[in-house]
Amino acid sequence: MIHNLIYLNDEFPMLNSGASLTSYCIYNHNEYPYDRKRKTILVLPGGGYAFCSEREKEPIALKFIAKDFNVFVLDYSVGEGLHFPYPMVEAFAAIVYIRRHAEEYNVDVDHIGVMGFSAGGHLAGMLSIYKEDEFYSNFLNVSIDELRIDFTILCYAVNIASEDDFIKKYLIKEEKNVQYFDISNHITSNFPPTFIWTTKSDEVVPYTNSTRLADSLKEAGVKYEFHLFPTGKHGGSTCDLLTNTIDEVKELGDAYKWVDLCSDFINNL
Length: 269
What we know:
Layout: E1 5-7, E2 20-24, E3 38-44, H1 58-65, E4 70-75, H2 88-100, H3 102-105, E5 107-117, H4 119-130, H5 134-140, E6 151-155, H6 165-170, E7 194-199, H7 208-220, E8 224-229, H8 246-252, H9 258-267
Parallel strand pairs: 3-4, 3-5, 5-6, 6-7, 7-8
Antiparallel strand pairs: 1-2, 2-4
Helix pairs in contact: 2-5
């Protein structure tokens, strides 16, 4: 495995932050019959923009590297010091880094996507909306095409910023900016193919955040797949014993199947 820690401001000095990227990529050693270029996932952990959840970092990477994907995990800016356009510029910088270093990490440059959990899902949605906005390409001094996102995975994602206290506290400093961060209101046919899953009993981010996303994608004619599992707490992550207690796994029921369903969705793109 190619397991590196990358500080993004080493390649993008305009980033005034300590955002880091960790690679979990399969090494093409000489026992493979041919060189593989793998579909690649940028994981954006949740944590309400207050922290980056450990449960949605390496455990997720291990699940998807086992499915023959390359995975990168982004530790983005969070907490009291957070201010726009961070962490969006950090996440876009991560996408550009992955694309520019595709040979080093055996990346299929036509299949680079984002996978976000909870607030990280909100961030993934924002990237998918504003990937062609010249503000971000100009900020990073890159081309628009380098920001391209080929698929989006939204896991119990925050959708409506105006309903989320964490986003209002850490990301939105002025009420007039709320609509900019409401994902459903900006979805067009240019939104990437999207996989969505959540649980109906989520007590932190209501499942209606996901149903609204699915409705907006359908209306825009975007390819999507939506799975609503009946039970399970917020933040199920892998939905198995890797990240949950025995009782939590029982409550989550079939939600663990999202990993296989998501893998199939990506592979069929």
